[in-house]
């Protein structure tokens, strides 16, 4: 890859992530939504750990559920970070120059499309995002909760994010049900270290949060899997665009998004993460926001 010193503009056609820069969208609404997502997960973890599990008299019940819930929370937040900080497949800005088009060696009669908003050559199935101010390859939609577009390069992490959030939401609801049942059967003062009114309020808010997040992320997860299996993005479906590309078979679509044959790497948000590359960027002057 070509590396450009921090503070200089990369040459046209070189992806920003290959220039030692971190992909990040400076959108106020998206940043607020992303922070809210983290705070809500931290709140759920606080209630589950300190209100329900630690005061429990059943040691193994607390340990097993605590480890499981916190592992799912870490996987969910890691998937969120990978979705937010991964280039979704941005087309280089301003590459619609005469020199660049001459290098494409177009055949007679071959048609290419230019985006008038970012002055770039639009590949097939690319769409312009008004928030990212870039054309994104296989853009599915722009999600404020991850402060990024969901596209060709980060759809896998977005699917994992929705899956893990749905799982911890379901887990939190199940734990709330057991906690209410045990508190009603016994003494409210003994089932939590907090006062009964505070315990009830915290658990009610957790139930509402868990129900809303479970509904939203489960629907989104199903929609994403359906789109991947049909090799069709949400924008293409809404616009009822007739496919001009050869659609992949369902299993081929899954393998193209998650990479290779089915394995545990499919559900691992840390797959492909290079710590050495980050350290290299830090030595070169630190990462820089790209958008």
Count the DSSP helices: 8
Q: Tell me the number of strands.
A: 6
Helix share bin: 40-55%
Radius of gyration from the alpha-carbon trace, in angstroms: 23 Å
Helix and strand content put the structural class at: mainly alpha
Relative strand content: 5-15%
Shape: elongated
Give the helices and strands as they follow along the chain: HHHEEEEEEHHHHH
How would you write the strand order of the largest sheet? 1-2
Q: Tell me, rounded to a whole number, the average pLDDT.
A: 82
- Main pleated-sheet profile: 2 strands, antiparallel
Distance between the termini: 20 Å
InterPro entries: Palmitoyltrfase_DHHC, PFA4/ZDH16/20/ERF2-like
GO molecular function, one term: protein-cysteine S-palmitoyltransferase activity
Pfam families: DHHC
Membrane topology: Multi-pass membrane protein
